[in-house]
């Protein structure tokens, strides 16, 4: 890993030199927690370097978005761009791509674009490195080691925290070395700093159907002689709760996490990750960047949106009707919810959610680590959208696609075949 990191540092020095030459930088980043963390790291870096900049947050680096880019500016694309580098080159765009998705061109220097992508260095961007982690590697070249906390938020948001591997592990270890984080074992419900019965009722990682209401969660805690109104469990109370939950949720060990306290006004990295996810899914991209930059009003709004979102999410989960093919579950849902619901419900088979927008159907597919170990690769499965006049891709554990809505059924059947072939090899 250190050898690969040294190779990256040579590219990072080239990026640093290019940034130092600029008076004005345009950042284009993704709307999920990894993208918003990436944008926040880059914004803090550029602020400290006295650079003028503008941030644009988008859901996809689509043709429509690329068409609106002007080659007069210097760009940094974060958590996107490697898959669209050819289109950017065709527009004579100059700048930097900091991404962790599989690149269309496996080169670091292509015309006026420098590409920092772990895949180019033989590192798996689906489980060993995130975009925010790669942005942190740039920030540390400026000695801004404190920005490691935001990178860890992105690592959590991109489901790469457990287990920690590769660049992700390096970042967490360095953050501990410089004392920018504290890590300790705790129960997930203590993360939220809200009444325990509410934390339990609206928790989705894990999702426990029998307790997914305030009344049920309140009465359950009362039955254990635990005060439902308190905001934090002691370790003894946590053990009592976990023991009781085993009868309702056999995987109760998932309730224990290694909490990470970071140098940020939202101190808990898991909480900050969920907050960024909720505002991003609500389209409040400016609020997300504001939260990353520690603006008090944005953080206050973030808390409000988080709990509004959690309540809506529980309602959507309860209303979700899974349909089954041989190797997948699928469902039709609502924009802003299908990815997270698919992630929550993915157990023995991958889950694919979709919603229809005009003449287009948009898909989010999710798996889990056990399915990945059996051979699941959702990036490959979603990429088959090209055969249906669409586009798709992502990671092995999480990917998406867009196709014409009249091809939903045949697309799902084809995806089911591909996934069946993957899992049969595992």
From TrEMBL:
Molecular function GO terms recorded: nucleic acid binding
Pfam families associated with the record: DHH (PF01368), DHHA1 (PF02272)
Record-linked InterPro entries: DDH_dom, DHH_sf, DHHA1_dom, SSDNA_exonuclease_RecJ
Domain DHHA1 residue range list: 334-419
Coiled coil (UniProt feature): none
SUPFAM superfamilies referenced in this protein's UniProt entry, alphabetically: DHH phosphoesterases
Every DDH domain range: 25-142
The protein's name in its UniProt record: Phosphoesterase RecJ domain-containing protein
Source organism: Methanocaldococcus villosus KIN24-T80
Native organism taxonomy: Archaea, Methanobacteriati, Methanobacteriota, Methanomada group, Methanococci
């Amino acid at each position: 890993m250190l050898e690969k990191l040294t190779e990256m540092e040579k590219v990072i020095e080239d990026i640093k030199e290019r940034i130092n030459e600029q008076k004005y930088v345009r950042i284009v980043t993704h709307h999920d927690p990894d993208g918003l963390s990436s944008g926040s790291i880059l914004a803090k870096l550029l602020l400290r370097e006295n650079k003028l900049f503008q941030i644009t947050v988008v859901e996809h680096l689509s043709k429509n978005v690329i068409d609106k880019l002007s080659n007069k500016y210097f760009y940094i694309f974060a958590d996107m761009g490697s898959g669209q580098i050819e289109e950017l080159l065709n527009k004579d765009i100059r700048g930097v791509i900091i991404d962790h998705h599989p690149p269309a061109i496996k080169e670091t220097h292509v015309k006026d674009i420098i590409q920092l992508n772990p895949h180019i260095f033989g590192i798996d961007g689906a489980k060993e490195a995130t975009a925010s982690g790669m942005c942190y590697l740039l920030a540390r070249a400026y000695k801004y080691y404190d920005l490691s906390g935001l990178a860890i938020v992105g690592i959590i948001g991109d489901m790469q925290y457990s287990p920690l591997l590769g660049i992700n592990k390096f970042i967490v270890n360095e953050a501990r070395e410089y004392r920018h984080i504290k890590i300790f074992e705790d129960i997930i419900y203590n993360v939220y700093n809200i009444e325990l019965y509410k934390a339990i009722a609206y928790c989705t990682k894990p999702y426990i159907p029998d307790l997914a209401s305030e009344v049920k969660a309140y009465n359950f805690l009362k039955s254990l002689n635990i005060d439902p109104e308190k905001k934090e469990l002691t370790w003894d109370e946590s053990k009592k709760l976990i023991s009781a939950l085993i009868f309702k949720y056999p995987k109760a060990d998932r309730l224990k996490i290694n909490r990470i306290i970071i140098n940020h006004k939202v101190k808990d990295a898991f909480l900050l990750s969920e907050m960024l996810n909720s505002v991003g899914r609500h389209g409040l991209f400016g609020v997300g960047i504001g939260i990353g930059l520690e603006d008090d009003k944005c953080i206050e709004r973030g808390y409000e949106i988080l709990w509004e979102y959690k309540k809506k999410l529980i309602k959507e989960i309860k209303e979700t009707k899974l349909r089954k093919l041989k190797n997948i579950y699928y469902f039709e849902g609502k924009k802003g919810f299908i990815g997270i619901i698919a992630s929550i419900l993915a157990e023995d088979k991958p889950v694919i959610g979709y919603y229809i927008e005009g003449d287009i159907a948009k898909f989010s597919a999710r798996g889990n680590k056990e399915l990945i170990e059996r051979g699941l690769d959702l990036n490959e499965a979603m990429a088959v959208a090209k055969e249906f006049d669409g586009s798709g891709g992502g990671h092995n554990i999480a990917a998406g696609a867009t196709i014409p809505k009249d091809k939903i059924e045949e697309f799902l059947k084809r995806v089911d075949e591909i996934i069946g072939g993957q899992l049969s090899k595992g």
